[in-house]
Amino acid sequence: MSIVTGTWQGVPAVTLENDFFAATLLPTIGSNMIRMWDKVAEREILRVPDTLASIQEQPGHYGIPMMMPPNRIRHGAFEFEGRPYQLAINTPVGHHIHGILRTRPWIVVHTSDIDGKQTITTQFRTTDFPELADQYPHDLTMNVTYTLSEHGLYQEIESTNHSELSAPFGFGVHTWFRIDGEPGKWTFQLPVESIWELDADAMPTGNLLPLTALFSAMCDKGINLEGSTLDTVFQIGANPVDSVLSKSDYTIRYSASEDFKQWVIYTKGAAQDTICIEPYTWVTNAPNLPLDPSVTGMSALAPGETRKLWIDLQISRS
Length: 318
Description:
By secondary structure, the chain is mainly beta. It has helices at residues 52-57, 213-220, 293-296, and strands at residues 2-8, 11-17, 21-26, 32-38, 43-44, 66-67, 72-73, 77-80, 83-86, 96-97, 107-114, 117-125, 140-148, 152-161, 167-168, 172-173, 175-178, 187-189, 194-198, 204-209, 223-224, 229-235, 242-247, 250-256, 262-270, 274-280, 300-301, 306-317. Strands 11-12-13-14-28-24-23-18-21 form a 9-stranded antiparallel sheet. It has a 6-stranded antiparallel sheet with strand order 17-26-25-22-19-20, with no helix packed on it. A 5-stranded antiparallel sheet has the order 1-2-3-4-5, with no helix packed on it.
């Protein structure tokens, strides 16, 4: 059992390790947990980048990238409490995607190795990055704590608004799970209420659609991933924030706190090597949807408010 500070591909890395798992975090690349190795099953749980260039070029495509706000904002622009916001345009078609966290450095503020649990906390403060002043003019601190145990990886996100104005706040992760080139062996279960209709830019139109027969089966006993092509946004509704990815002798349960109102599931074409399971507190482009916040998850941190979220990744074997 240990916490080892070193490097990965020449950048700072911290590895948490116990008898069951080894998990590697890159604090300076969005505080992304890029690797989680299961020592018992001898398999990678997450999609690991081959090189530093891989994750620098596609920071949202490996490990557990953190996103605030999650997914797309149309033209990077929205209005909140009468104030205009303009996020950087970073897609070829003129939109903003995946927020301000995933490429920027975080600092390590705490580590501990107690009672068989290895813990690391990293911190991001918006005011440390002057270029964000025009995009997100709020003094926001985020502390993310990862705890590795014999059961898996627990993530706690604590966000505080130090500003004198309410700060729009949507958060999500884009977690890439390996299915080892064997989609037919894996079943995916996800209890949800409805599907967001998407437009040509993969943003919600505002219409919620009933579940198809396929997705009703996904809610109930789960669906086999063989031949599945998913790039789908779901509203959770009154269901638990819980997903299960499993095969005959191995189960990954991925769950989150009730602040998470939406799931996005993405297989990058027909499911083959990975499935990306993404809990979001607000839906894609939420600030621009003319719907009640109870539907979109649109939210803000009041001046001085601290909000805590959690995400839990648990592994069981048989």
